[in-house]
């Protein structure tokens, strides 16, 4: 599905929405194109309709803090689909989730205790800690802090590069 970057009225990114939501905001006058209308590369074509790739709200909006959902997909994205023990990249369906401190010993289901892991490494580690299994984690698991920045990891590099100018931080190095 085609996505549109939504900016507040001060040109700060606040969300990534569907093209349908963007079209509704535009038609109701709640948003406007954030770039020049005459450049076709600034638009996406959906069912013979041109929709801006980036839209800007026309009113002030208080944006509440968004907590990133703790789920399998987000753990795999955080770990870049790489087994955190052997370092190999896998398809999502080839990975499992591993509790660093084993669940059998009451290891919690939290960001800081779960990593992406291939099936072989998960079986090798079993219900032991990495130290007990003589396995080393590539990096310590963590809770991602910036919701929108994390969401951008789910999109193709070309789309993110197009949206990059609206972010105060460098997306490539973070």
Structure write-up:
The protein has 174 residues and is α+β, with helices and mostly antiparallel strands. Helix content is 21%, strand content 21%. It has a four-stranded mixed β-sheet, with helices on one face. Strands 4-5 form a two-stranded antiparallel sheet. It is elongated. The mean pLDDT is 88.
How far apart are the termini?
Answer: 26 Å
Strand order of the largest sheet: 2-1-6-3
**Percentage of β-strand residues:** 15-25%
Largest sheet: 4 strands, mixed
In total, how many domains does the architecture comprise?
2
Radius of gyration: 20 Å
Put simply, the count of helices is 5
Can you give the mean pLDDT? Answer: 88
Specify the helix fraction band: 10-25%
Structural class: alpha+beta
Shape: elongated
């Amino acid at each position: 599905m085609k996505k549109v970057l939504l900016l507040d009225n001060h040109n700060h990114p606040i969300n990534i929405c569907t093209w349908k939501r963007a079209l509704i905001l535009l038609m109701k006058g709640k948003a406007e194109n954030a770039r020049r209308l005459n450049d076709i590369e600034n638009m996406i074509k959906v069912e013979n309709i041109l929709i801006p790739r980036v839209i800007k709200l026309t009113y002030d909006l208080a944006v509440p803090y968004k907590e990133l959902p703790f789920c399998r997909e987000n753990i795999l994205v955080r770990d870049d689909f790489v087994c955190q023990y052997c370092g190999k990249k896998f398809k999502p369906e080839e990975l499992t989730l591993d509790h660093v401190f084993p669940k059998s010993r009451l290891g919690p289901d939290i960001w800081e205790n779960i990593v992406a892991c291939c099936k072989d490494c998960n079986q090798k580690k079993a219900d032991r800690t990495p130290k007990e299994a003589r396995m080393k984690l590539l990096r310590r698991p963590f809770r991602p802090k910036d919701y929108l920045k994390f969401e951008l990891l789910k999109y193709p590099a070309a789309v993110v590069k197009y949206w990059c100018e609206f972010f105060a931080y460098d997306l490539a190095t973070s």
